[in-house]
Design a protein that fits this description.
With about 450 residues, this protein is α+β, with helices and mostly antiparallel strands. The protein contains 8 helices and 13 strands. The protein has helices at about 1-55, 140-190, 205-255, 265-290, 305-315, 335-355, 400-405, 410-420; strands at about 60, 70-75, 80-85, 105-110, 115-125, 130-140, 300-305, 320-330, 330-335, 360-365, 370-375, 425-430, 435-440. The strands form 3 sheets. Strands 1-3-2-6-5-4 form a 6-stranded mixed sheet. A hairpin with a 6-residue loop joins strand 12 (about 425-430) and strand 13. Helix 1 runs antiparallel to helix 2 (about 140-190). The relative contact order is 0.07. The chain binds adenosine-5'-diphosphate (ADP). Adenosine-5'-diphosphate binds near residues 376, 394, 408, 409 and 411.
Length: about 450
């Protein structure tokens, strides 16, 4: 990250520098050359004026301030006037403008004068003696000198500037990322065993402190999940240990007194304990799978009234309770039939277990949702416990439900299933008994 930022910044600044430097050199050279052209042009016009008036001296004055040299050449190529001290046997330049206007060219190396490039202007002029061409040459070496100096400065300055950008970016990026790296190291250090530790949040109110805050929130959730998992395993082991120990004691006593043992009763007790454990293990497995997020079969249309009526019939069949299904009407939801049956059965099992004589069931739906109410006339659930009963291994009347086979997982499983179907399950107020209400999205 740090290296990438540095490389990117250096490349961007490098490209910008090259473009700027090249344009600077090109523009500066062009404007300096234009100034040289202006000097040559003014000089050429001055000489041409003299030539037109027929007052041209054969020796032209030396221009010491700009160093330009001038020559006037007639139609036959003879030099009729030239800057004092300049050779007169040869024309300064050979080109002639095609028309009456002037023409400026860059010429590398004149036949005489100083070496180097010149800007040469040729200006055709009519004189009393006939047509002549005025040549004025101005040296480009001052321009080249300035451009050389600028190029030299850029060639040393630009790499220095680039190095400065690279070092600064590297340092700043390093300083910015240091807290991120510190957070990474802290998180790497927090193993599954030390999930209670938290990363330190920098005092600054910026992205990094927010990252640390979010990290800590994630650790809170992981910690809570791990704690829940630990408690689940501990509770599950405890639940299994009790019937196993009881079964072992039964067997030990029976074997110590084989003659006085009623083997049929012992076998029936053991079978009951076995059933309880089987049910417990099945419930544990269901919850473990739900926790692990094992994918469930896809949702299909389910007639909830079928399930409810079948469960009601089952309870009626077992004998002593009345089940009032007068308020059950058709209600369809999208879901998994097995799971929904299981959730409804858990409610009916509890109602059967706690009711004195009557279970009232209501089922109905509007456009948005389906509502199922299972209401018994038993002892009910105190308001303070109405949330707790849905937690795993909660038993309000411990001895009784343990003896009768309750695992304390029935309502937890029902809530898990209803949650997974996008619904809700609650215990609501009732004048008598427990009133469980399930709400599910209608089909
Ligand atoms: P269990 O297997 O013990 O029935 P549940 O999770 O189904 O476990 O229920 C948790 C606890 O909630 C029960 O132990 C019981 O104390 C209480 N409970 C559940 N249903 C009823 C009910 N219909 N009437 C009174 N108490 C109930």
């Amino acid at each position: 990250m740090r290296a990438r930022t540095t490389v990117a910044a250096t490349i961007v600044v490098g490209v910008a520098l090259v473009v700027t430097a090249v344009s600077l050199v090109v523009f500066l050279r062009r404007s300096l050359v234009e100034r040289v052209d202006d000097i040559a042009r003014v000089r050429a016009h001055d000489v041409a004026t003299l030539a037109r008036q027929g007052t041209l001296p054969t020796e032209l004055a030396v221009e010491s301030d700009d160093g330009s040299i001038a020559q006037v050449v007639d139609g036959a190529g003879r030099v009729v006037a030239a800057t004092a001290g300049l050779r007169r046997d040869q024309s300064l330049a050979r080109f002639r403008p095609p028309g009456a206007g002037s023409e400026v060219r860059t010429v590398d190396g004149l036949p005489f004068g100083e070496a180097g490039s010149y800007r040469v202007i040729a200006l055709p002029t009519a004189t009393p003696e006939g047509p002549v061409t005025v040549y004025v040459a101005a040296s480009l070496s001052p321009v080249d000198d300035v451009v050389d100096v600028l190029q030299g400065a850029l060639a040393t300055g630009a790499p220095l500037l680039l190095a400065l950008v690279a070092v600064t970016t590297w340092t700043v990026a390093g300083r910015t990322l240091r807290p991120v790296d510190a957070i990474r190291a802290e998180v790497a250090d927090i193993s599954e065993r030390s999930l209670d530790r938290r990363v330190s949040v920098p005092a600054t109110d910026d992205e990094i402190s927010r990252l640390a805050g979010t990290m800590n929130m994630m650790l809170d959730r992981l910690d809570a999940a791990a704690e829940r998992q630990r408690r689940f395993v501990a509770d599950a082991s405890h639940e299994l240990q009790t019937p196993l120990a009881a079964a072992r004691t039964d067997l030990e006593v029976a074997l110590a007194h084989p003659d006085s043992t009623r083997w049929t009763e012992t076998a029936a007790d053991l079978l009951a304990a076995n059933r309880r454990m089987e049910r417990l293990v099945r419930d544990l497995l269901f919850l473990a799978r739900a926790d692990a997020g094992v994918p469930r079969p896809p949702a299909r249309p389910v007639d909830l009234d079928d399930i409810v009526l079948a469960e009601a019939a089952r309870i009626r069949g077992s004998g002593h309770l009345r089940v009032d299904t007068g308020a059950v009407s058709a209600a369809a939801v999208d879901g998994r039939r097995d799971d929904l049956t299981r959730a409804v059965r858990n409610l009916f099992d509890n109602a059967e277990h706690y009711a004195s004589s009557l279970i009232r069931v209501e089922l109905g739906s509007d456009d948005r949702r389906v509502t199922l109410i299972v209401h018994d006339d038993g002892p009910g659930i105190p308001p303070a416990d109405r949330k707790r009963v849905f937690e795993r291994f909660t038993r309000l009347d411990d001895d009784r439900s343990r003896r009768t086979g309750g695992t304390g997982l029935g309502l937890a499983i029902a809530r898990e299933i209803i949650d997974a179907h996008g619904g809700s399950i609650d215990v609501e107020d009732a004048p008598r008994g427990a009133r469980f209400v399930i709400r599910l999205p209608a089909r």
